[in-house]
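for the writeup, i need someone to sanity check this before i put it in the appendix. the sequnce is what the collaborator sent (i think, or maybe the updated version? ugh). structure was predicted straight from it, no edits. if anything looks off just tell me and ill rerun, i have time this weekend
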Amino acid sequence: MQPLCNARIETLRLSEHLQAFYPQIVDDFKLICSAPIRQQASIGGNLVNASPIGDLSVFFLALNAELTLNSPSKKRKISLRNFFKSYKQVDIQIDEWLDEIHFQCPEALRISFEKVCKRTHLDIASVNSAMSLVLHENQFKQIHIAVGGVAAIPLYLHKTSAFLRDKKISLSLLQQALDLAQTEIYPLSIIHYPTFVVVLIISVY
C-alpha cells in the first residue's frame, strides 16, 4: 500500500513502482493537464477538489483506494468510495487534512484509464473512466470500475463491479455489465451519455 497524497501528479506519472504494473501511465497521464501544472498540483488536492470529472478521482476509485484523514485530535480512515458526498462536497471536517492515500497492488493487477475530451491535451474530460482488474483463467477475480462526468460526483460503479466479480469473460457478460452500468449513472448532460457508453466499452476491452 502506498501513501501518496503530498506527491505531485507528475511524480505519480513517472513512478517506477506504478510503471511496473501500469506501464501506460507515462502516456495516459499526459492527458491530465499540462506538464507545468502536473509538476505543481498535488494528488491530494486533486481529490479534495472533488470535481465530477476529476481524472485522479476515477483513477484512485478504480484502485479501491483508502484515505487517511488527520486532525489535531484524531486520525481516521475512509474509503475513497465514501469520501465524495455530493457535488464538490467531501467527507472531511474543518480541522482535518488528507494525510495518506493507500491502495493495494497485486502482481497480476491490470489498469485501464480512458479520457474523452474535445482536445487531446490540455482539456478537461467530457467523460473519463478507470478500471483495475485481476484475471485468473479468464475470470474476473477482482474488478473495480469508476467513471467521471456521469454524476454529481466521481462515481464508483458498485453494482457493475460486483456483478462482474468471479465471472468468466464473455461478450454476453460484458453486454449485461454495460446494461447494468447504465442504470448506475446520472449523466450531467445528455451529450455525455453516448460518450460514456463508448468509454466504458473501451475500458472493458
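The chain is about 35% helix and 25% strand. The domain at 9-102 is CATH 3.30.465.10 (Uridine Diphospho-n-acetylenolpyruvylglucosamine Reductase; domain 3).
thx in advance!!
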